[in-house]
Amino acid sequence: MSGSWMLESVERDGVALAAVVVDAPVRSCPGWTGGDLLAHVCGYAMFLPELFAGDVALSGPVPAPGPERAVAEWPARLDALLELLTTTPAATPVPNWSVQPDTAEFWIRRTVHEFAVHRWDGDTTRTAEPEPIPAGVAADGIAEYFEAFAATGIAAGRVPRAVVTMVLELTDTGDRLTWPLPNPGPETVVRGPASDLLLALWHRRSLLDHHVSGERTVLEQWPRI
């Protein structure tokens, strides 16, 4: 993915998030309303400029603006975040919580997928079938999931180590992605559109629905990271 594609994705999904139905339930996030979801992404957009500026520790706290404030401030917060991500060189040192390098590039990519998944969540407040995440964005989101979240969880001992290789066959891009967990082993294969598989990794859909072959246990016990 090019840098411009990433920023376009953030802007597109950020604008779409403004259309959440504030009082409706987020069907993919039990217990949340659309207002809670918008408050969550608004808090993220408030936190990142402080982190980039060195004004707040990585451990937070992340601002919690509340639904009413989030609705009022979201357009300005989104504009400020886009300006930050556009003008900060990718190699700029910025701390993060993962095994990935401590650079702004990590956060540009993280924002793409934070907004992509939550845009999909927001769509559940107003339609029975949200628009899929674009295939190229979702394919990179799958890579980010394993490179940042899974690798960090395994390294920190929060996710059990396994002698399993996850294989994801993306039917819309033609990609076949392989990820040891963390040691190579027998393959567990899942297949489907990139959007569906990314959402399944994040428990918005069921990985078991996409199972093709190999041990099912790793899918049945898929961690919540």
In short, what is this structure?
The chain has about 220 residues and is an alpha+beta fold. Helix content is about 50%, strand content about 10%.
Question: What's the layout of helices and strands?
Answer:
Layout: H1 3-17, H2 34-53, H3 67-87, H4 104-123, H5 135-155, E1 162-170, E2 176-180, E3 182-192, H6 194-201, E4 211-213, H7 217-220
Parallel strand pairs: 1-3
Antiparallel strand pairs: 1-2, 3-4
Brief descriptors of the model:
single chain, 225 residues, alpha+beta, Four Helix Bundle (Hemerythrin (Met), subunit A), 2 domains, four-stranded mixed sheet, 7 helices, 4 strands, globular
Describe what you observe in this structure.
- The protein has 225 residues and is of the alpha+beta class.
- It has two domains: 3-123, Four Helix Bundle (Hemerythrin (Met), subunit A), CATH 1.20.120; 135-220.
- The protein has seven helices and four strands, in the order αααααβββαβα.
- It has helices at residues 3-17, 34-53, 67-87, 104-123, 135-155, 194-201, 217-220, and strands spanning 162-170, 176-180, 182-192, 211-213.
- A four-stranded mixed beta sheet has the order 2-1-3-4.
- A hairpin with a 5-residue loop joins strand 1 (162-170) and strand 2 (176-180).
- Helix 1 runs antiparallel to helix 3 and helix 1 (3-17) runs parallel beside helix 4 (104-123).
- The longest helix is centred in the middle third of the chain and has 21 residues, at 67-87.
- It starts with a helix and ends in a 5-residue tail after the last helix.
- The mean pLDDT is 96.
